[in-house]
Amino acid sequence: MTENRKPLILITNDDGVQAKGINELMEGVRSLGEIVVIAPDGARSGMSSAISSLNPVRLHLLKKEEDLTIYSCSGTPVDCIKLGINEILERKPDLVLSGINHGSNSAICVIYSGTIGATLEGCILGIPSLGISLTDHSPDADFTQAVKYAKSVARKILENGLPKGVCLNLNVPDSPDVKGLKVCTQTMGYWEKEFQKVKDPTGRTVYWLTGQFANEDSDNEHNDEWALSHGYAALVPLQIDMTAHHLINDLNTVFCHCGLDPQSQENR
Amino acid sequence: MTENRKPLILITNDDGVQAKGINELMEGVRSLGEIVVIAPDGARSGMSSAISSLNPVRLHLLKKEEDLTIYSCSGTPVDCIKLGINEILERKPDLVLSGINHGSNSAICVIYSGTIGATLEGCILGIPSLGISLTDHSPDADFTQAVKYAKSVARKILENGLPKGVCLNLNVPDSPDVKGLKVCTQTMGYWEKEFQKVKDPTGRTVYWLTGQFANEDSDNEHNDEWALSHGYAALVPLQIDMTAHHLINDLNTVFCHCGLDPQSQENR
Questions:
Q1: Fewer CB within 10 A of the end CB, N or C, for chain A?
Q2: Which of A239, A241, A213, A230 is nearest to A106 (CA)?
Q3: What pLDDT does B255 receive?
Q4: Which superfamily does A8-187+218-242 belong to?
């Protein structure tokens, strides 16, 4: 972080700039530095790391006061981070915060979450980044505990940094008595029974996404679902290198040393 | 795979069901099994693992003939896979194929790619999955080599399966003389100079996503960018567990054993 300057903190979310979660977050961490918020102009849940590759993106300045600037953006959470770093901020931020999401982003949901998409983007661009979610979907959820944990983790990141290529995913249980913080692994599992098949007003079939989480890792006390269900805040380090390094040698044997090369194979 | 039955292959992409790449792929692998295509009704580039959480999704049957059924879908590539597995297919597919994408999905682009989003989704749902991309964006690209490699890798997956939690990302260089297949790591790097700032017809500023890839891993002969730039097809195993397992202990020290717990800390 630049000496003699307050830390610069870029904040976004996927629930939109009007959501209670991001507004409580920006107030909660205001004492930590200069805050710039660039957040979607409405809900972008489930946008993952989507980028606006087909349409241009618009920015709208909503507020500018000492150490707090707020923009809304027509794009995705990742667009918000890219615009902030590339176009808006005059220096590289010291921290990216994404959230506080209304609803958990634990387990396999890191893959689908716009909150985490923005967090990964901060990490890709070389900035220590933290995504924060509360396990309560309601618009008027109580963010008191989530803000407290977010601020503590954010302060620690500003003091210590994070290793290159790694960001943090913090989920806070919806409880007035959170028991503490656990560093966890991402719970493995999948969503099932995912659609409600209904008729639209013209009688045509449409599919609404819904579903329930099938936990394939439920006897593991080290993962985030276990921590959350036992009253702890869960902090998972996520990496942007998705390579399954442990399989490189095995796959070389299967795919490259036994005649796979199409040049040497009949085209059945 | 079920005995006495042809393998069932679910195919999607992110360029849309009309794209040349997916049509060449479905014809190319037709001899390998029963093919069901569920693909977006138009371009969904850069959609990552986005899901349609805010709007319902529609399906439209385009073609049904022996061993080839084609649907278009109003949703994202991941929606296509979820709908296929949850609602359309009568049995679990033996293989998910996503592509062939017009343009590469190498390096850090795995994070943004809808092609890879669908591939990861197949993997999350427990199905061996392969994403395929050609390093040529043009609508009339020559997919001859890409189809050949896709078919060979697909056949090998049907024979051998893939480890749980891992899928494959195949990028094929735009060349009539691909030198062979290399199992690679995901090249680390980021996109920079990402926006063109232009005026819309009403004179308002809009931002178009563009940019160039900054390779932070350019002296590594084991990554996919190296392989592609040297004329090889690149096969990267990707895992859906994003946990940075090697950092769990270090982070426990930083975040959990030195007074971070907000309960024991003044709220500065």
A1: C
A2: A213
A3: 86
A4: Survival protein SurE-like phosphatase/nucleotidase (3.40.1210.10)
Q: Are the CB atoms for A65 and A131 separated by under 8 Å?
A: no
pTM equals 0.95
Reported ipTM: the value is 0.94
The stretch B224-235 carries a mean pLDDT of: 98
The domains of chain A are located at 8-187+218-242
CA A30 to chain centroid, in Å, comes to 20
Q: Do B165 and A188 touch (CB under 8 A)?
A: yes
Nearest chain B residue to A45 by CA: give it.
Answer: B53
In A42-135, DSSP assigns E strands to 59-65, 68-73, 95-102, 129-134
The 10 Å Cβ neighbour count of residue A200 is 10
Please judge whether A256 and B193 are an interchain contact, meaning their C-beta atoms are less than 8 angstroms apart: no
Chain B contact for A86 (CB, 8 A cutoff): yes
Please report the residues numbered 225 through 244 in chain A whose beta carbons come closer than 8 angstroms to any beta carbon of chain B. Answer: 235-244
Which of A31, A193, A237 lies nearest to residue B247, judging by beta carbons?
Answer: A237
For A68-78, what is each residue's pLDDT tens digit? 999 999 999 99
Average pLDDT over residues B139-164: 97
